[in-house]
Every structure is written in structure tokens, then in C-alpha cells.
Amino acid sequence: MYCQNCGSEIDVSAKICPYCGRIINISEVIQQKDTKIQEMEQKISELEQIVKEGSKSTNKAIKENLFQPWIFIFPVVFVVLFFMFFIILVAIR
Fold first, then answer.
1. Which range among 13-17, 21-25, 78-82, 89-93 has the greatest average pLDDT?
2. Which candidate, 18, 22, 41, 90, has a CA 20 to 30 Å from the CA of 4?
3. Where are the domains of the chain?
């Protein structure tokens, strides 16, 4: 545990800081720890929300990329060009 006044590391069972002489109030320390725990829980929930939103947008982007129009146009153009090339070759012979 650390002294709230000077920041020195002190024993958990200490009632007075050996460095600055401040009286250590255990209820104050517990209250500060509870506050820090609540802050950490809030940050964790915010990060979880960000991760959920990020995964949703990533899934949406993947789905959008799968259905791009060129995926359907390219095979059609390839088949048309293939048959045109074949017809030209037959016409030349």
C-alpha cells in the first residue's frame, strides 16, 4: 500500500506513515480502492462495447466486399470474350 500524502510504499498494517507521519485512515484507503475498482470496471465495459462495435463493422465490411459488382461482371465478360474469340477463330478458318 502507498501513503496518500507522500506516495511512499508502506506496510498494509501501518497506522502512521513512517516517512511523513500522516495517520493512515483504513476506511479512506478502502474507499479509494473501491473508487479505482469502479473506474476500472467502467473502462472495461467501454472497451467491451468498442470491441463489439468494431466486430460488427468488420463483419459488415466483409459482407460488403463479398458482393461487389465486379465479382459478377468479370465472369460474364470472360465468357462473352471467350465466345467472341472462338467465333473469330472459326470465321478465319
1. 78-82
2. 41
3. 26-92
Burial of 22 (0-12, 13-18, 19+ CB in 10 A): middle
- pTM (2 d.p.): 0.41
Residue recorded with cell 498494517: 13
Alpha helices, DSSP H only, in the chain?
Answer: 26-66, 69-92
CA–CA dist 40, 34 (Å, integer): 10
Residue pLDDT, tens place only, 17-66: 889 988 887 777 778 888 899 999 999 999 988 888 876 666 665 666 66
Residues 50 and 44: their CA atoms lie apart, in Å, by 10
Q: How far is CA 64 from CA 7, 50, 61, in A?
A: 54, 21, 5
